[in-house]
Amino acid sequence: MPKITVELVAVDHMLWSGEAESLVAETTEGEIGILPGHEPLLGQLVDNGIVVIRPAEGEPKVAAVQGGFLSVSQEKTTVLADFAVWADEVDEAKAEEDLSSDDELTQARATAGLKALRRAASVGAR
């Protein structure tokens, strides 16, 4: 089966790089799935979204992301997020508490974290 080269990068660190069967990201235009051979595009990530990577080998990987861009070219697909964290690193109780924060950034990250936890459970990610 054909593969795509995927990079998931936060502003301050690389989260993942490798070969994948597919990638799904939430953009301002809606949720978009990327498969091998996808047309080139540039999309803006939502402020409280998720990214799902289905690696060529292993379990699906789900990340909470905040802002940034999705770039699809012939060579690779790059997700460059302002902030990103793996779903299994999200503290659910803290995220629930942060939903009530006065800080919009904290609320958005909490929303993204909780969405990532729900999606990880639905796709069988760790």
Automatic annotation (TrEMBL):
<dbReference type="InterPro" id="IPR036771">
    <property type="entry name" value="ATPsynth_dsu/esu_N"/>
</dbReference>
<keyword id="KW-1003">Cell membrane</keyword>
<comment type="similarity">
    <text>Belongs to the ATPase epsilon chain family.</text>
</comment>
<keyword id="KW-0378">Hydrolase</keyword>
<dbReference type="GO" id="GO:0045259">
    <property type="term" value="C:proton-transporting ATP synthase complex"/>
</dbReference>
<keyword id="KW-0406">Ion transport</keyword>
<dbReference type="GO" id="GO:0016787">
    <property type="term" value="F:hydrolase activity"/>
</dbReference>
<dbReference type="Pfam" id="PF02823">
    <property type="entry name" value="ATP-synt_DE_N"/>
</dbReference>
<dbReference type="GO" id="GO:0046933">
    <property type="term" value="F:proton-transporting ATP synthase activity, rotational mechanism"/>
</dbReference>
<keyword id="KW-0472">Membrane</keyword>
<dbReference type="GO" id="GO:0005524">
    <property type="term" value="F:ATP binding"/>
</dbReference>
<comment type="function">
    <text>Produces ATP from ADP in the presence of a proton gradient across the membrane.</text>
</comment>
<keyword id="KW-0813">Transport</keyword>
<keyword id="KW-0066">ATP synthesis</keyword>
<protein>
    <recommendedName>
        <fullName>ATP synthase epsilon chain</fullName>
    </recommendedName>
</protein>
<keyword id="KW-0139">CF(1)</keyword>
<feature type="domain" description="ATP synthase F1 complex delta/epsilon subunit N-terminal">
    <location>
        <begin position="5"/>
        <end position="84"/>
    </location>
</feature>
<keyword id="KW-0375">Hydrogen ion transport</keyword>
<dbReference type="GO" id="GO:0005886">
    <property type="term" value="C:plasma membrane"/>
</dbReference>
<dbReference type="InterPro" id="IPR020546">
    <property type="entry name" value="ATP_synth_F1_dsu/esu_N"/>
</dbReference>
<comment type="subunit">
    <text>F-type ATPases have 2 components, CF(1) - the catalytic core - and CF(0) - the membrane proton channel. CF(1) has five subunits: alpha(3), beta(3), gamma(1), delta(1), epsilon(1). CF(0) has three main subunits: a, b and c.</text>
</comment>
<dbReference type="InterPro" id="IPR001469">
    <property type="entry name" value="ATP_synth_F1_dsu/esu"/>
</dbReference>
